[in-house]
Amino acid sequence: MYYVPIQPKEFVLQFASFLLKSNSLRFGVFTLASGKQSAYYIDLRVLPSFPGYFRLGISALKDMVAEKIGGFDTFASVPTSGLVFGSALAYEMNKPFIYVRKEPKAYGTNKTIEGFLEPGSKVVIVDDVATTGTSLSSAVEIVRANGGIVEDVVALVDRHEGAEDKLKKMGVKLSAVTGINDIVNALYKAGLIDENALESVLKQMVTQGEYEVD
After folding, report:
1. What would the pLDDT profile of 25-81 be if each residue is shown by its tens digit?
2. How far is residue 54's CA from residue 47's CA, in Å, rounded to a whole number?
3. Whole-prediction pTM value?
4. Is 156:183 a contact under the CB 8 Å cutoff?
5. What is the DSSP letter of 82?
6. What is the DSSP-derived secondary structure letter of residue 35?
7. Is-contact 134 34, C-beta < 8 A?
8. Pairwise CA distance, residues 77 & 129, whole Å
9. Burial class (CB in 10 A: 0-12, 13-18, 19+), 1
């Protein structure tokens, strides 16, 4: 697979096509980390192995942050895959970066955050894929407990499985470059997946309550 520079308006199709060809997006029956069944599996951890497409994703995140997020001080993320995207985005935008530990350090200072966080700093949390929002909401709570202000979370892909609503209840806005609905619709219109794959994903989204069909 070779990367070909594309225009922003073509991002979803080109990105979705790459996910499909690289087996980063697969259809079938999968069990997620939460234990729930899913009609598809999406894994962006392969993206950094393809620098052109990784840069494409980071550039899309950068553009979205510039367009939708006001002034802020620091980027933060959660291990493991979100950390790769968050650190690259922070480097690209010349912003400080911290990350939230999954568990407090079991020795020394028992820190829950790695890096320097100035109290009162406005923090934007970055993830690769937003799903139920469990890890993201936990990260919000930890950053706030350490003196940071969190009003925004950004992700490359939103699975539309509850993250937006969960974060909204905390006073946090979720912004995603694209959603699984946009991805499967683009693939279907391009003839790259069949109607069964499309409908299985959209049906799953409807049952999660974040998506409606006309």
Report:
1. 999 888 877 677 899 999 999 999 999 999 999 999 999 999 999 899 999 998 888
2. 5
3. 0.88
4. no
5. H
6. S
7. yes
8. 12
9. exposed
Contact at 8 Å (CB) between 143 and 100? yes
DSSP result, 120-183 = T-EEEEEEEEESSSHHHHHHHHHHHHTT-EEEEEEEEEE--SSHHHHHHTTT-EEEEEEEHHHH
Alpha carbon distance 120, 107 (integer Å): 27
Look over the chain and give the mean of its residue pLDDT values, rounded to a whole number. Answer: 88
pLDDT digits (tens, 9 = 90+) for 57-71: 999 999 999 999 989
* CA proximity to 132, closest of 204, 72, 199, 80: 204
Classify strands 113-114 and 74-77 as parallel, antiparallel or unpaired.
unpaired
The residue assigned the tokens 């970055």 is 126
